[in-house]
Structures are given as C-alpha cells and as structure tokens.
Queue: 2 jobs
Job 1
Amino acid sequence: QVQLQESGPGLVKPSETLSLACAVSGGSISGYYWSWIRQPPGKGLEWIGNIHDSGRSNYNPSLKSRVTISVDTSKKQFSLRLSSVTSADTAVYYCATGGSSWYSSYWGQGTLVTVSS
Amino acid sequence: DIQMTQSPSSLSASVGDRVTITCRASQDISSSLAWYQQKPGKAPKLLLYAASRLESGVPSRFSGSGSGTDYTLTISTLQPEDFATYYCQQYYIPPLTFGGGTKVEIK
C-alpha cells in the first residue's frame, strides 16, 4: 500500500517560491506517475501536473511558466516548485499517484500553504 | 483544455435514496474518467476509474456509466457515510481536469 506524505512551509510570502516535497513509502517510485493537485479553501480541485520517474512531465498550462515538478528516486520523493506566488496560490496542496495511470488512487493528506506577507 | 461540467452542483437526499450525478466533457474522452469522493478536511478518495471500474474496496452501491462525452455516477442506496462532495476527472489528455463538484447533503 503506497503512502504519501507532503512536507514544506505552510506560509510563503508573495513573489517568493513555494516548495513542497512528497515522500513515498510502501511501494516503488520507479515506473510510475506522480502528481500534484491543489484545492483553494472552499473551492474545487485543480491539477497542477505530473511526472514520470523517467523524467517525462506534464503541466497545467495555466501554471506552466511557474511550475517545476521533479523526482528524486534515491530519496523516494518528488517535489513541487511554484514561483512568483500570489494570494491566489493559497490552497491545500496534495501529492498523489495512480501508479502507471494518470488518475489518482493514492493521495497524501494534503498540506495548507498560505501566501501572505 | 477539456472542460468538465458536473451537475447538479449540490443536492439534498435521504438515506436510502438513489442518487445520480452527471459529468459532461467538452470533447470525447474515451471513458478516461474517474470519480472521487471527498469529505471535509480529507483528501479525495478514488471511487471509480475508466468510467465504470470500481476501485478495490469501494462498496458496490457505487456505479458508473457513460461513454464519449457523457458520464454518470450512481449511488444505488445512499448511506449516511456517503454524504460528501463528489468530483469527476478526465485523464484522457493533459491538462487533467476536474468537474466543479457535487455536494450531497442530508435532506
């Protein structure tokens, strides 16, 4: 059973870079897709992007210029970087995976990131 | 981007009711559709994928159908633990997109 755990600062200042990591346990990180999804308070879900351990990645065009998703197989974790954040980026950020599929069978518990000075 | 239109946005129902939620894609997504259930303060939980395939451990009262652009999630006999928000997601083409959600409330 794959388990995912997000980590990172809960507060980021406007114009700075949001950085989160997702630790993978209970399964292999190789051969699978790893995703980031966010949810602003009281709103719906927004897919940020995903990455395969081979390095292939897909990003939401609405965020593409600001987003980088990377994977570190040696640490069994994958990461999200979102630059030039504004208050609109305040959300619960989830890491997720569906293994070799793009839907998400396994989710982290989510971490609230607030953008505020 | 493929737009996912979910309806209704909310509904009130009683325990034992049959509930149907629909999701319409802006183009054919070839049954690459997942349904999730989310309870307050919790991560979404996968219910179905490939439009109609039940995820392991999900009760059989949940079912999905549809093809092309139109899909349906049905809860055959609503249970107390089913009161939640439900989302559809297409995973046919990136960017993967979600419907706006359907909140199922107690009547």
Job 2
Amino acid sequence: KNEVEQSPQNLTAQEGEFITINCSYSVGISALHWLQQHPGGGIVSLFMLSSGKKKHGRLIATINIQEKHSSLHITASHPRDSAVYICAVPPEGGSEKLVFGKGTKLTVNP
Amino acid sequence: EAGVAQSPRYKIIEKRQSVAFWCNPISGHATLYWYQQILGQGPKLLIQFQNNGVVDDSQLPKDRFSAERLKGVDSTLKIQPAKLEDSAVYLCASSSYPLIAGTGDREQFFGPGTRLTVL
C-alpha cells in the first residue's frame, strides 16, 4: 500500500509570500497528482507529473522520483489561493486509482 | 468542455433516512469514481466503474451503500439507511482511461461534490 504524507498540515501566509507544500510517498509511482480543494468541496486537478517540473501561472510542481518526494510551490501568493492542497498517487502496484494525502490547508491573509 | 456534474450540492437528512446522489461524468469518459471525504481527511475511494461494470468496490459499505451506472454514463450513489458517520462530502470523478489497450489519460476530473449532513 502506498502511504502518502503531506506537510505542513496547516499553513498561514501573508499575501505575496512564497509557499511550499511537501508530499512524500512510500512506493514508486508512475505519476503524482496535485489537487486543489476550495471550501465548497469541489476538487480541481492542478498537475499530474511523473518527472521533473511543471509550471502553470504562479504554481510550480516538482518531483524527485528517487527520493519519492514532490513539492508544490506558489509564488506571489494571493488570498484566492486559500484552499486545501492534496497530493495523490497510485497505490502499490500501479493502476489508475489514487491514494490521497490528508491535504494541506493554506490560508493567505491580505 | 463541460465538467463533471453532481447533484444535489448539499443535503441534510436525519439518521436512518435514505439519500441518493447523482453524477454525470465528462462525455466519453469510460471510468467513473465515487469518493467519500470526511472532514479533515483525504478522499477515500468507494467504488470505481469502467463503463457500466464495477472495477473496485472493496471499500464500499455494501450493507447500506449501493451504486449503479446502468448505461455506462451517469451514475447514482445511494445510502440506506444513513448513519451519523456518513456525514461527508461525496465526490464523483471521471477519466478517459482506458480507451483502447490501456491508452487514455489517467488524470481524474472531479465534480463539485455533494456535502451530506446526517443529524
């Protein structure tokens, strides 16, 4: 079974700060997902990556396959970035199913 | 492209009552997932459909939960009777995987969720 650990659990920042959220997993994977969940409950897929780095606007996701670790960075954070950020990976043995971390609750204050 | 649709968005019921949730996946997506997300936790897979067949329902409490996807398109998830611990957000997701011989994007697209409160 693939275990997913996210840190920190809660993060409060001031507008404009650079944010880093970390994700570690226990078993080798084909791809890792970063998801964003707003208070209303709906989830938006931010990134799916299997190596290196991906960038979309102010969001950057990196992954180190050897170390089984990924980071999500937010540059120039804004209050609208306040959400829960969830890391998800396939279970041991692969497949398209996902095992989810518990999420990191980010609050960006103006 | 229209996203995954779910209804209702919110539902409040008393314990022992029944409730049903509906999901319409992205057009053409073969795989549909139902997740339960309890407050403070990550989503937990309840059931996975590929077209109209069940791929995985190992974590579905079958004594009270049921789900169907009769025509391989939209799906319903039912709880009967509900318990207090069923209070959660129920998320539906879909993906185009697999199309033919393992092709298709494994990325999952999520609906807005249904927030269930059991009193």
